[in-house]
Amino acid sequence: MRFLSAFIFLAGIFASVNAPMAQNYICQDKETQEKVNACMLGYFQTQDQKLNGVFKRTIAMLKITDRELGPKRKGAVKRMQQAQEYWVSFRDKNCEAEGFQVRGGRMEPQIYNFCRANLTSTRIKNLEHLLDGNE
Length: 135
Description:
Layout: H1 2-16, H2 19-23, H3 33-69, H4 76-99, H5 108-132
């Protein structure tokens, strides 16, 4: 029964993934759960590195905004840094909660890292949209 619940849960996750991310899903060919877990961790780490680059560009853009606003009205950089800290905390706690579907099982790291990669991909798009509107 637990296996069936996990399978249904995973099917829902994979079905909810947008097309570009689904095309880039590289862990489906792994032969063991341990290899899938390692692959999914690598996939998350790749997304996280992309996010760090986009975030640096966002901060650079907001520094210009703060300069233009002047000392009495600035604060964009500080707010974005706070928002990012809160967002990372939300992402990780949210994904821990999703992992409870298979708590203690060998699939838990896969679910956790897939969730983090998926939310990180969405955050990248959000920040890129912010950058696109200001470049």
